[in-house]
């Protein structure tokens, strides 16, 4: 066997299985302008499974049409700040045909000094 002969080809497959979540979007759903389902259809789906838990925010962006966000997140951080962060990270990986599901873990660290 000389060094130019073809070797074997292998493919590594990694699988991640998890239980189906209700609602299926977790905290945030970023909707591309040409995504398979639009923001209104996504909101109806979420409202059936978790009524009154999500807001839809339409945005002016080259390829993102809307962000559907869990209302509880906007009670912790202002909607403007959280939306800016969501868009900034989403536009790095998505295009107009995609729906991006996002999970956000927010931790508040509070430190106070009190008189003794």
Q: Would you list the SSEs in sequence order as H and E?
A: EHEEHHE
Strand content: 15-25%
Low-confidence parts lasting 5 or more residues at pLDDT below 50? none
The side-by-side strand order for the widest beta sheet comes to 2-3-1-4
Short description:
By secondary structure, the chain is an alpha+beta fold.
Structure characterization notes:
- With 116 residues, the chain is of the alpha+beta class.
- It has a domain at 28-102.
- Helices cover 25% and strands 18% of the residues.
- It has 3 helices and 4 strands.
- It has helices spanning 39-49, 71-76, 79-90; strands spanning 28-32, 54-58, 64-70, 99-102.
- The chain has a 4-stranded antiparallel β-sheet, with helices on both faces.
- The radius of gyration is 21 Å and the shape is extended.
- The model has no long low-confidence stretch (mean pLDDT 85).
What topology emerges from the helices and strands here?
Layout: E1 28-32, H1 39-49, E2 54-58, E3 64-70, H2 71-76, H3 79-90, E4 99-102
Antiparallel strand pairs: 1-3, 1-4, 2-3
Question: Which terms summarize this structure?
Answer:
4 strands; four-stranded antiparallel beta sheet; 3 helices; 18% strand; single chain; 116 residues; alpha+beta
């Amino acid at each position: 066997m000389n060094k130019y002969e073809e070797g074997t080809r292998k493919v590594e497959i990694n699988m991640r299985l998890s239980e189906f979540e209700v609602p299926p979007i977790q905290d945030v759903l970023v909707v591309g302008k040409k995504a398979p389902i639009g923001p209104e259809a996504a909101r109806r789906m979420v409202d059936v499974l978790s009524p009154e838990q999500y807001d839809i925010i339409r945005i002016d962006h080259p390829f993102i049409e809307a962000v559907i966000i869990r209302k509880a997140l906007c009670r912790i951080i202002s909607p403007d700040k959280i939306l800016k962060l969501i868009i900034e990270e989403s536009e790095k990986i998505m295009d107009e045909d995609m729906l991006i599901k996002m999970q956000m873990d927010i931790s508040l660290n509070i430190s106070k000094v009190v008189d003794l």
